[in-house]
Amino acid sequence: MIFANVRLPDAVRIALENGKLVIFAGAGISMPLPSSLPSFNGLAREISGLKEVEFGKEDQVLGKLAHNGTVVHLAAAKRLYNQDTHPTEAHKQILRIFGTPDKVRIVTTNFDNHFSDAARTVFRNKNINEFHAPALPLGDDFEGIAYLHGSAKSNPRAMVLTDKDFGEAYLTRGWARDFLIPLFQKYTVLFVGYSHNDVTISYLARG
Q1: In degrees, to the nearest 5, what angle opens at C-alpha 204 toward C-alphas 10 and 156?
Q2: What's the whole-model pTM score?
Q3: Could you give the residue ranges of the DSSP H alpha helices within the chain?
Q4: Using CA atoms, how far apart are residues 94 and 119, in angstroms rounded to an integer?
Q5: What residues in the chain have per-residue pLDDT under 50?
Q6: pLDDT, tens digit (0-9, with 9 covering 90-100), for 114-159
Q7: Contact 62, 72 (CB under 8 A)
Q8: Helix axes 175-186, 199-206, angle to 10 degrees
Q9: What pLDDT score does 202 carry?
Q10: Listed residue (202, 102, 207, 201) closest to 149, CA to CA
Q11: How far apart are the C-alpha atoms of 112 and 54, rounded to whole Å?
Q12: Sheet bearing 130-132, strands edge to edge
């Protein structure tokens, strides 16, 4: 199986044929034209006005800004959801892999709405399930597109941006953790446009 000129292991093809494939998409999908959106680090730099933000510390920087009165979530939503950003060809290719809307299983940490917009084009406005954090489905029994860290369109205040947000999503309230653990246990997960250096996801996947 070849995707974006990369030959994928047979296990990925088999999982797809058996309805056991989940594609986990990250910021790298929405950075090229015509999306032109920043990485999480780039977003933190834009909102904070800092020239550099240490990788892995973005949530803390945004959390400090929020604590000091910056409306971080609305600032992020304005940057990520507007008429100047559009789905890339990669969004459409990922959706086409599944063939039909009822077989799509995509999880994304992106806040933009590009997978949903692309799905309307790819599947000619056929219905596709959408889930926006914190209202997520069962990780081992879902079909559609799951916006794991929330959506700039549907509910900006629920986006997982700050250290407080991450603490609630993965620890105290744990809705992101409770979604991901059974997902990793049941499905073959293909990461696309995503850095697996992300500490939280990396530890959950290995655990």
Answers
A1: 105
A2: 0.93
A3: 10-17, 40-48, 58-67, 72-80, 89-98, 114-122, 163-167, 175-186, 199-206
A4: 10
A5: none
A6: 999 999 999 998 989 999 999 999 999 999 999 999 999 989 999 9
A7: yes
A8: 40
A9: 67
A10: 201
A11: 23
A12: 130-132, 144-147, 105-108, 21-25, 188-192
pLDDT of amino acid 199: 60
- Amino acid at site 126: K
Rg of the chain over CA atoms, in angstroms?
Answer: 17
Which tokens is 148 given?
């794991």
Contact 133, 158 (CB under 8 A): yes
Strand partners, 190: 23
Residues in the chain: 207
Three-class secondary structure of residue 104 per DSSP: coil
Distances (CA, A) of 18 to 46, 71, 105, 137, 174: 42, 44, 13, 20, 29
Cα separation, 144 vs 116, in Å, equals 10
CA distance 118 to 125: 10
Inter-axis angle of helices 72-80 and 58-67, nearest 10: 120
